User: Fold these one by one.
Assistant:
Number 1:
Amino acid sequence: MGDKKTRIIAVANEKGGVGKTVTVVNLGAAFCRQGKTVLVVDMDPQFNATRGLGVDMKDGMLTVYDLISDIESVRAADVIVPTQWKGLDLIPSHVDLAGAELELIDEIGRENRLKQALESMSGEYDFILLDTPPSLSLLTVNVLAYAKEVIVPCQTHPYAYAALDDLFDTIFAVKKNINTDLRITGIVATLFDSRTRISHNILEKLKNDDRYADLLFDTVIRVNTTIAESADVKKPVIFYRKGSYGSTDYTSLANELLA
Ligand SMILES: Nc1ncnc2c1ncn2[C@@H]1O[C@H](COP(=O)(O)OP(=O)(O)OP(=O)(O)O)[C@@H](O)[C@H]1O
Ligand SMILES: [Mg+2]
């Protein structure tokens, strides 16, 4: 076991399309650029984080699916792949992961599969960042059972704001029943479009809501088309266009987390 003080951070929100994956990929990239070592774990069968880090699945490549479904014979080290950026590693995902859900359903300790599988990685990295699917599935529960911290991306849109309440209930239920160490590190407002009244409106609501105000990061992630372009070339925006809003905003978020 290494001697780093590993921070294990889940990026979670049951709502789809709020910027979870973009946050995982770019926080990973921002930490890496600051000389930190990072392991990204893609726990979403859509495998967007895997793609976003430029990893193409090849025949025979193992994924997080193999890791949690064959815990006796597959080791974490067997499924970790390097990305093209030194210090930034990945445990890839695959559509098969959707099937893991059903396979695990009857197993004892099913919520703790990922934790068991990754326990040996504590101390090896500065950060372990976990991407989650947009549902409260057994996969998400596995992530929340293992993580110590949660970052919640909240799109600056009324539905996303309204959904925070349920999300917090979920996180507190996991904390109470499965993982007492879990804490919400912060909420990050995403997809902020300064030209729209609704974006400003929702940001104000977050700032003035007693439940969320203290948790809100100062950094706001602005809408930035370069983020979509960077997904097309399979690179974090941080490495694709250093001067873009996307790069600046995620660097600033990483700095808040390091402070
Ligand atoms: N700041 C941004 N500016 C512009 N586009 C963005 C930004 N953040 C995310 N996007 C785009 O919005 C879409 C949703 O983002 P992302 O995939 O990160 O959300 P998600 O919460 O992971 O979605 P899912 O719940 O489906 O996993 C993607 O097409 C992404 O490229
Ligand atoms: Mg995603």
Number 2:
Amino acid sequence: MKVGIFGGSFNPVHNEHILIAERAIIELGLNALYVIPTFVAPHKKGEVVASGEDRLNMLKIAFLSNDKIIVSDYEIKKQGVSYTYLTIRHFKKLHEGAELYFLMGSDMLDNFSTWKNPREIVDNANIVLIERRNGNYNANKLITNFENTFKKPVTRLKVYGTTVSSTEVRLRVMLGLDTLSLILKEVANYIAKTNLYGDNPLYNRVKNALPEKRRVHTLGVILTACSLAEKLGVDKKKAELSALLHDLCKYSDISDFPSGTVPENAPSDVWHQYLSYYVAKNELGVTDEDVLNAILYHTTGRPNMSKLEKIIYIADLLEPSRTFKGVDELRNAISKDFNSGFLTCLIEIEDFLVKQGKPVFDLTRQAINYYKGENYELN
Ligand SMILES: [Fe+2]
Ligand SMILES: [Fe+2]
């Protein structure tokens, strides 16, 4: 008898989870696979986590038709931090004599030795690495490290479907965007019916202010900004908030704002950065100066920008729905070296504006001069 264990926060369960579960059953020849949502995923603190009951309900809906899959409330019921060695102990007892297979992602395998009682886990279960498409890691190296440390082989489970993240699903729901390419229709219906993830006032404000296309752009800016923030050691929550609000007033009427909100000589393309800043500060109660400045200078840039300001500027320009000529080269420049890539982006923008016969705002010129100078000194 072979029994699999597949844990996670499942917040919510998405199409890639379903694919992983189905592949695991076939490839590993499992008689049963337990899908076990964690009570609280310790690394996900600060994110919107649906209640245990809702996550269980969505899993039951998603796996209804596969009778080898058992959705387990073991960790939810137990409450507190979920320790894998205890979960393994529990299922070992439940299925005496069975061979256990524990499924994990690359990040889990990477920090496995820091878990509680890793030896007990390895002694009682086969470790299965879920290899996803576009995984930003070296599987061979991870496995070699693991096998050298624990003297146990790792089973590889290749799941090369579309990469989906629960974070994107939640953001899409919060921005009122379609989720049907990421989750089952039945799960989407459950989320809609229960208004899961739907009661965030700032997201609702953006949802009501922007047309669909601009919300898709905002989603892209949030995801890009958060991933840059993580890489550069900037607070992800601040990146998310700045990205969420950066284009809030893209479609607002300037005459609805007090005079002086926008500088007199500012071209109309940049008005919305001043208006969005104004609303964030005066109506939405945003007090963090860095967040406010990231919104305020996201179109023009300025000299001496903070890391967060640069992140929002870059995310706005290069998020996935941007398709202008040369965008991939700029993405490469940024991933190679953030600061010099940033200057390249500023210069490209100036070039673009000049070629289009559009005005280059003073602030943008000042920013370019400033960063060119800085670069020159660095060299
Ligand atoms: Fe903008
Ligand atoms: Fe934007």
